[in-house]
Design brief:
Blueprint (H helix, E strand, L loop, with lengths): L1 H16 L3 E2 L6 H4 L17 E8 L2 E9 L4 E6 L15 E2 L1 H4 L8 E2 H7 L37
Antiparallel strand pairs: 1-2, 2-3, 3-4, 5-6
Amino acid sequence: MQSSVGLVALLCLVSWAQADVVSRFEDTPECLEYFHNGMVPKWGATTPNVVSLCQRFGNRYHFATLYDTHRHIAVYSAYRFQDSNGGGREKRWFVEPQLVSPSWQAEMKDGYWLGKDHPGVYLGERQALNEDYTHSGFDRGHLNPNGHHAEPKA
């Protein structure tokens, strides 16, 4: 009996730790903290083909995004603004592995390296890729601008 309870607790913990694509931001405290006064906008949530993403990198949550997987655009992103003296733009393009396959890792990964890890798998079925912007005349934009965060101290 004790081992069953331990196994259930472990499985709950594992599923919680992998819950980056979530049903509702309101049910995920780590994501809810990015919304002003914990209030998640209602618009967009019932739109077909949108997913709620608690975006994690370096084993830490950084922001929340409501993402339209049909149009390959963010409906909105929520993050905490911090005073900053700038911050450079990332040259890398990060993708959400779980938008390619729900069984893949829950942490954002550089699209180049994710493609190397899974050769022959098209990563852009449900999300924009860096090459979508190459020679398009459009800017990639920012879901969570580096310039809105204090630079980490060395």
